[in-house]
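Review box. Two proteins, two foldings.
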Amino acid sequence: MKFIDIGVNLTDPMFIGQYNNNGKQYHEADLKQVLERAWSIGMEKIIITSGRLSEVKESLELIKTYSEENNNNNKNRLFTTIGVHPTRCSQELINTTNGNDEIKKEYIEELLTIYNENKEKIIAIGEFGLDYDRLEFCSKEIQLKCFEYQFQLSERTELPLFLHLRGAAESGACSDFIDIIKRNRSRFTVGVVHSFTGTLDELNKLLELDDGIYIGVNGCSLKTQENLDVVSKIPINRLMIETDAPWCDIRKTHSSFKYIKTNFPTLKRDKFKLGSCVQNRNEPCNIINVLEVISGLNGGNMEEISDQIYKNTIKVFFPDLENK
């Protein structure tokens, strides 16, 4: 089986042994081992999620570092995105000095400059969208303005979209999201709504947009029985899988855990040794667990399901490889 993890936060400090933003070093950096575990289970490519300018730069530096190691065995395996996450829009993309909440046009231009200098490694616009669950970080009004504004990135690069949608059904997030997608549909080709956790009604509305919109699922999409019931309704030809590591791991308390067959050696972070995973820290190798759940829900052949998901991902993010 071949895998492509469409969303991994490899720049997160957890992969260098730091947790909770307290500066404490719990264990030595193990990103090299994390990547080696991913390659060993059939991972072919990883898309590193970038949600602001500084993360784009960090991601590109990480890609450069690990692409040069091991006689270029990692070359053409690591990629990233450009865009501003909805919870970071106020901090990153808005100029508040004059009180008018104007978008920093120069910020977008800098993202485009970086893209033009790194086209082979930047393959999607994102992570961007709406997050009504965390309005304490950015107001609804600013999120809406910044979400719509960033479609110029897709228009000017012709890259696919890596979209964020989060918010309880009653919040109106999905409705606002769909309205913006419809208004800007001519400005992009294809995209994936990643880490989907919505209702069946919301899923159907997204699928009804057109067949250029895909749904990405990870452990956060598979926590409850209701989540599983919804995910089981996603057509396999519209599905992608991801880990969103180091977040969104599948735990014993989750309804999806009964489908898990593959386990990796795991230790608590304060007892960590190289060669093991860290308890409650997700990583790309666990994408096989997401596939196991999808396969269990669909009652199908895991290899066939994996092959279709892989083809979906190639079609959207690596179209040059589609017929190879």
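Next protein.
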Amino acid sequence: MIIRSLLDTDLYKFTMMQVVLHHFPQAQVEYKFKCRNAGVDLTPYVDEIRAELASLCQLRFTDDELDYLRGMRFIKSDFVDFLALFHLNEKYVVVQPSASGHGEIDITIRGPWLHTILFEIPLLAIVNEVYFRRTQPQPDLQEGRRRLEEKLDLLKVPQYTDCVIADYGTRRRFSRDWQEEVLLSMRRILGPQLAGTSNVHFARLHNMTPLGTMAHEYLQACQALGPRLRDSQVYALENWAREYRGDLGIALSDTYGFDAFLRDFDLYFCKLFDGVRHDSGDPFEWGERMLAHYAANRVDPRSKTLIFSDALHIPKVIELYERFRHRCKLAFGVGTNLTNDLGYTPLQIVIKMVRCNGQPVAKLSDTPEKTMCDDPGYLSYLRQVFEVKAGH
């Protein structure tokens, strides 16, 4: 089995799932898979992916895992009680070769949001590991170790001692075992410069800090669940604040483009949230504009955290650190470049929510190729409502 624990996923899946249980337990959603690599044929692996999916759906949370979740101050006891009864159900997922016939596969997840939200991360990890163990049956682990140490050594200089990074690489990891080795190497080499990992299973296993708040799917779903489309971003942030009462205070800034985020992220939210996460567009421009926005709202930027998490590698982390150090608090989440860099081209695969309660939903990313929606009419309407130019 590739996935051996239901905790082998990102923390923000649990934090969002708790909001779903308490606020949107009846919501129905649909997710779609996409591989952005040209010419990659995944169809030979469909049966193997299905077999791993079946194994995933046999898993249950153990008492020790539930106790671990219960120990987090922002996780509520009724949610843990629900997880004690929970399991993933195969009936909500369809994996099949695409009708396009170009080596693509279709993965569709459809059902209650509460019962489908935990599929995304393990399914992506399964697709990755199946693909790489079939195409690279004898991987060059020594090359992977060399690359990793070379990167991490860049941070082990006196002027970067307070530059901390975290592992955000579960969904696109080369394998489960490789992610674990990477994490242990990071802890050995970086010491306190390793902030933690988004992977709850490895955080628990190795006494690391689990990290994460919200993902795009939460803000996307609020397009269908909120009172009015134009207010959906504000609605999502206010609901989050009601649920967590000051915990998990990092807002995601690019679901509707950064301009629309800044329009909605007013003085109230500037003070209420601890910081903001960058996930698309130019990170340097984003950081400068975010700090200026705090200053314009009479909030000291040095009291707020900017988290960078978009396709980071260590040299870019250092560039961003040098630009923004001493001007605000900083954190960096590095994913694929840490957990899938052995010399092979990583898969650029995603699973995104495309519908909620029968209505199309979408993300208007600041990186246009990240936008994903199966309804061009709705996408055009969303751009109009949030005043986002075509091409985003």
